[in-house]
Write the structure tokens for this entry.
Amino acid sequence: MSTVSDSQQGGPTMARTSATILIIDDDTSVRKVAKMRLEREGYRVVSAADGDEGLQLAQTEHPQLILLDILMPRMDGREVLRRLKSDPATHAIPVILLTVLEAQDEIHQSIGPGYADRLPKPYNPEHLLQKVRTLLTSAKPERPAGGA
């Protein structure tokens, strides 16, 4: 029951964090696997099954990082990313794209700029964790008000 014992499960565990990560993906298994792996590392994880729900959670949960699927019904990841980056409340949140698109050129043509990194599907949960750690440790907390 103690979270201290979680650090004994092997692998380099960083200091426990309260960073919130939002997963937006219509695939239930992708959300479950990512959520379990990230929570084991001490991250707080919230998830959404579609773009509309994801945008709402981005506003209410204030995540420090978003994992975003590109190919989703109703509102695809391109539109979600566009809306996230055009909203002052969410524009600075780093986004990792979860995509079946392979080539970087294909991603740029299809999605455009605005994402911090990408992870091709299917992905290795350890690669996901490595990218999350890298982005969260390199991201500096931003305050909405104030000068540059």
